[in-house]
Amino acid sequence: MKNSNFYITTPIYYPSGKPHMGHAYSSILADVFARFNRINDCDVYFLTGTDEHGLKIQKAAEKNGLDPLTYCNKISEIFKDLTKKLNLSNDDFIRTTEKRHYESVNELWDKLVKSGDIYLSKYKGWYSVSDEAYYNPDEVVEKDGKKFSSFSGSAVEWVEEDSFFFKLSAWKNKLLDFYEKNENFILPISRRNEVIKFVKSGLKDLSVSRTSFTWGIKVPNNDKHVIYVWLDALTNYLSALNYPNTNDNLFKKFWPASIHVIGKDILRFHAIYWPAFLLAAKIKPPIRVFGHGWILSGEEKMSKSKGNILNPLEIIEKYGIDELRYYLMKEVSHGSDGSISLSSLENCINSDLANNYGNLCQRIFSFVKNNCSNTVKRSKNLSIKDKKLINETDKITKKLRDYMSNQSLNNYIKSVINISFLTNKYINDEEPWKLKINNIQEMNNILHLSLEQISKISILLSPIIPLATSKVLDALNIDNKLRNLSFLDKKKIIPDIVTINELNILFKKII
Ligand code: ME8
Q1: Cβ proximity of 207 and 165 under 8 Å
Q2: Which pTM was predicted?
Q3: Side-chain half-sphere of 376: how many Cα atoms within 13 Å?
């Protein structure tokens, strides 16, 4: 019996161009939380996919001389392939052009109609195709005769067309009440405050259908309208659990979602529109929306329109996937923006992976191979220095579950890497190589504790660098059943007599 159920999602990506580092970041972040919860004894369901409707995609298809579906089939495959290259552990990949999703969106629409939250009128206002978002007049600025959103910097155009509206204005107080009762619904706190401020300033009714193009899900019983792409896209989180079949096991087990991991640019959709739609349809809103920061190149958001993109696939090819995962997760802290560059990536690989964790594993494994014929035996009570290392490690590991439950991944990584640093220091101080002749027993004990520490560190780092850590855990012959956090409750990982296998270099130092 598992501890609890954990449903985690990434944003579903627009297949409107090549995947970039922002996509990689959102996905890896969610994957780390998914993997951590798996080793923390949860039953995890992890979803990603592609968001294929709307004017932005229709235009991208036209530009490529393809009909929208053929275009989406092609680009969606590229994103699917990305999930493999990033070593994501997703349980499903949803496409909003799938039948299961249409059924789910139709049902949600019907629910909103039945609750009296939808009415027909005319939309007159600003729209950004690139953001697929409506903007108020006070959010639009003029530059060189052209209009832009002051919020995102994207170009906006004037739209006048028949449209169905969702009565968002009526949800203002109910949303504020919901945020108050669910303190941790939006994290980090700075984003929660931002959303509350925006809602308090008043909400306008939201246009939820378009009539000037056709690429989307048709409004039930009204072919002239396609459903607004954000209402369509957000519903993917339900479709993947087989909504509208609320008796389905997946739905019963995993809804409400534990966490939607998203970038801060799409916070309004997830933290305002989405809970309002769900509350109106009498479906429980998700437990948490975590809005991460942007990956910056210098001071600017990395984005296709700005042409300052570091290509994740090229980085993986040159440095390796664990290296990219570790760097992105360590560099961008708890919801803030993070500036990335090749030189800081190389520094991070050298200092944390090659010189610290990699070196710890390599030095102990080669010492045990060369001096103990691969087998180490623990044979005495712990020394004061052993106890000190164990206590220091315990003190650090006690905080780790809390860090992860607050999405404070960056503190988590720093703490685990510190355990590796302390273990390296313990070995330097204990100098087991000096005991080879006169005190084999003591030498064995030091090596045994070092191997136990390596096992703990490897399990703790496994959500972040799954490939390297599984090589180490394999070389330690640690059973899959033990590769979880039960050691935090004082369970030993390795037996008193432990035999290791060959371990090749984990991380090459970049010179
Ligand atoms: O927004 N740094 O899709 P998308 C960090 N289809 N994150 C970034 C980023 C950057 N420079 N650039 C983009 C969509 N992202 C919608 C989602 S969900 C129902 C629909 C993040 O392909 C962005 O914040 O434009 C978002 O979380 C994700 O990449 C997908 O962006």
Answers
A1: yes
A2: 0.96
A3: 30
Determine the distance separating the centroid of ligand 1 and the alpha carbon of 293, expressed in angstroms: 11
Which of 503, 462, 504, 502 shows the shortest CA–CA distance to 482? 462
Residue nearest to atom 24 of ligand 1 (CA): 263
* DSSP-derived secondary structure for 168-192: GGGGHHHHHHHHHH-TTSEESHHHH
Residues in the chain: 511
Q: How far is CA 480 from CA 3, 33, 70, 256, 474, in A?
A: 18, 19, 42, 30, 9
Q: What is the Cα–Cα distance from 35 to 358, expressed in whole angstroms?
A: 21
For ligand 1, the distance from its centroid to the CA atom of residue 19, given in whole angstroms, is 10
d(CA 134, CA 130) in angstroms, rounded, equals 11
Tell me how many degrees the CA angle 317-25-334 measures, rounded to the nearest 5: 135
Identify which of 392, 497, 490 has the alpha carbon closest to the alpha carbon of residue 448: 497
Give nearest CA residue, ligand 1 atom 25. 14
CA-nearest of 357, 368, 361 to 497 is 368
CA of 25 to the centre of ligand 1 (A): 9
- Of the candidates 434, 442, 430, the one whose C-alpha atom is nearest the C-alpha of residue 389 is 430
Place of tokens 């393809």: 66
Q: How far apart are CA 71 and CA 75, in angstroms?
A: 6
Q: Check pocket membership of 302 for ligand 1, CB cut-off 6 A.
A: yes
Written as tens digits, the pLDDT of the chain (511 aa) is 677 999 999 999 998 888 999 999 999 999 999 999 999 999 999 999 999 999 999 999 999 999 999 999 999 999 999 999 999 999 999 999 999 999 999 999 999 999 999 999 999 999 999 999 999 999 999 999 999 999 999 999 999 999 999 999 999 999 999 999 999 999 999 999 999 999 999 999 999 999 999 999 999 999 999 999 999 999 999 999 999 999 999 999 999 999 999 999 999 999 999 999 999 999 999 999 999 999 886 656 655 555 556 789 999 999 999 999 999 999 887 778 888 888 999 999 999 999 999 999 999 999 999 999 999 999 878 899 999 999 999 999 999 999 999 999 999 999 999 999 999 999 999 999 999 999 999 999 999 999 999 999 999 999 999 999 999 999 999 999 999 998 887 778 999 999 999 999 999 999 8
Strand pairing class (222-227; 209-210): antiparallel
Exposed (0-12), middle (13-18) or buried (19+): which is 496, by Cβ within 10 Å? exposed
CA gap 102, 223 in Å, rounded:
14
For residue 344, how many other CB atoms are within 10 A of its CB?
Answer: 13
